[in-house]
Structure of Oxidoreductase:
Amino acid sequence: MAPPESVVVVGGGICGLAAAYRLAGTGRRVTLLEGSDQLGGLGTFFPSRQGWVERFYHCVMPTDDDLLALLGELGLRETIRWRPTTMGMVVDGRHHPFNSAADLLRFSPLRPLDRVRFGAVSVLLRRLGRHRDLDNTRTEDWLRGLYGDAAWDTLLAPLFGAKFGHAFPDVPALYVWQRLGRERNVATRGYPAGGYKSIIDGLLAALVAAGVTVRTSTPVTALSVAADRVRVELPGGERIEADRAVSTLPLPQLRRLADAPLLARLPSALVAYQGVVNALFFLRRPLAGHYWTPVVRSGTDFDGVVEMSALAGVEPYGGRHLAYAMRYADRDSPLFTEDDATVAARWTDQLCTLYSGLGLSATDVDEVRVFRAPFVEPVYPLGYLDQRPPVTVAGTPLLLATTAHVYPEVTSWNSSVRLANHVAATIGADITGGATSRRTAAAIRADGEPSP
Ligand SMILES: Cc1cc2nc3c(=O)[nH]c(=O)nc-3n(C[C@H](O)[C@H](O)[C@H](O)COP(=O)(O)OP(=O)(O)OC[C@H]3O[C@@H](n4cnc5c(N)ncnc54)[C@H](O)[C@@H]3O)c2cc1C
């Protein structure tokens, strides 16, 4: 009898974990290799008082069907606590609630006529985008035309542009359209009781039970392929050979590991990536209670605040309130390379100034932690649907499952799980399980790529 097919999954973020989970139990020998000492990737956490806190703010949306289906299979779906949340907006240092038609009508950064136009277009936006080639339309061209100059300059460019920096106006409007679809029920968000660690722990337990070998602190140092074999090199001269491999690493990181023949077959780095600098403020008092507050022209380095305890409560944080302040930035930028203590001190001052009207002062700040990640948001070029690399690397047994593949979906745990389902199905895993199987089947076009 032929030995079972072996598969190596590189990267233990949600995409690698979900792919390994899908491949487990199919009779294949699956090995998952994670370079850091923790599973979870961008969703990882650090010990804080009695519990664990995510380095980067994360929440679940009610539209996250594929993630919710996976959680259902793990017996974790009911652990998601759903809460109505609100949004604020700070423009030129002034705070505005931004949730209802009444809020919009009072929104002084826009003139009254622009407020009405903003509301009307927002209601119709998803419909206005249908049947348009938004993948080849610059975001600025589409939104400036619909909303007008004032709304674009004052609100939309800062709001959506925060993630992409100066490249934002050139990002395809399809991304924005898709994002609005994910967030259409903006008021309700979910957070797992036990935090994101409970999801990672659940996945790990399921993998171990299914016989998957999971290795942390095992960075892949080199990758090479022959027609029907993959060779993975590990520290200390260790080598693993397998029939197939799935790489979940951002493409620039994978290219650094590939030998020359593989490099020639890999997609060239089509997308640039934005990183993120992210500070956590453990506070003795709440801020304004809004889950998300974009900050525009207000003298801060960060351009948004997520008040996590408005969603998760204060219990996960030892009774303290938790606010994340974030700035998406290039990994070579001065901010990204600045030391943690300097960022923490300056951003604390800025946060206290920003919320001084609510009485926030330095004595309310109990603890500050700074985390950064170099590869977070792919900056998609126009026409990316046709340039998006296939998940299969032609002529090799290597598959790619990266955040550059989820477009036009928003990068999220949901889109990573969806992609993992697709890649596992491409290898031959039988994806069963309610919404997942239906969505995955629908997502796979005749050419075997996820549909937009
Ligand atoms: C600030 C911020 C906020 C976010 N908010 C949300 C949110 O609210 N909701 C949501 O759903 N998503 C959110 N996301 C997005 C989400 O975290 C990502 O889309 C998702 O985690 C990507 O998963 P991944 O497995 O593709 O990549 P990653 O999580 O990046 O995983 C890649 C893994 O590969 C490992 N690795 C790297 N090099 C090697 C190597 N040589 N060998 C072995 N392993 C290696 C890394 O250590 C990492 O664990 C947010 C992200 C950030 C940064």
